[in-house]
Design brief:
By secondary structure, the chain is an alpha/beta fold. It has a domain of 184 residues: 3-Layer(aba) Sandwich (Carbamate kinase), CATH 3.40.1160. A hairpin with a 2-residue loop joins strand 3 and strand 4. Helix 3 packs across helix 4 and helix 6 packs parallel to helix 8. The chain is globular. The chain starts with 18 loop residues before the first strand and ends with a strand.
Amino acid sequence: MSIEQKKYHSDDEQAISQPLFIIKIGGNIIDNPVALDAFLKDFSAIKAAKILIHGGGKIATKTGERLGIVSKYIDGRRITDDATIDLVTMVYGGLVNKKLIAQLQALGTNAIGLTGADANIIPAEKRPVKAIDYGWVGDIDPSKLNSQPLVSFIEQGIIPVFAPLTHDGKGHILNTNADTIAASLAVALSKHFRVRLIYCFEKKGVLEDVNRDDSVIRKLDKELYTKLKDEKKLFEGILPKIDNAFDAIRSGVQEVLIGDAKDLIKNTTNNNEGTLIY
């Protein structure tokens, strides 16, 4: 059973009825060949329109160590200096992305590997230096995305697969958070499709009790989220992802789902295993 296809109308846009799944996977899948193989088989089995966004931070770190490039972090965020931007461009945009494309082609999924620089799809701005200089890190304004090439790819049955890289329009590649890229693409494409943004991570969904994997909250609206947060029932590490989800919904995305990559197929239906945020 696919997402219920409801039609949305406005004076400026045609009716939106076709579902689109924008799916983000993290390093816990990319770094595990068995998990990645299973995920890509499930991803390929999804018949609806879809886009994949991936990370690859651990592979970049390990590759950097072999090249003598030491990764630097502040509060868990990578500092992207001159050497590091070259490293992540090679690893994210080359090694990781093209391996994914080859694996998807082997599964009969006609995919194309992209960065935000390709076709000027995701222009960004270098993060301004305040207390911390993050280097070549990009911040996105979703309203500036060029979504038309993606609409064209989808209409042709070609599956876009994005590395977490954007560009500043001045010739520089920018390292950009994959969650942010996924949310920004979801916002931009919600003008053309009925979008469900899916964040795959290592838990079954948002847990009401972090110590109990069976305490998944199946549906989460803003009222319930505020209540649970005030009662300090939610794991602090999940709060930024939920906040991003509600930001995306306020900007036009129909649904956001947070769940386990192993449940991907179910999480593209109305009988989802993860947490549906709306």
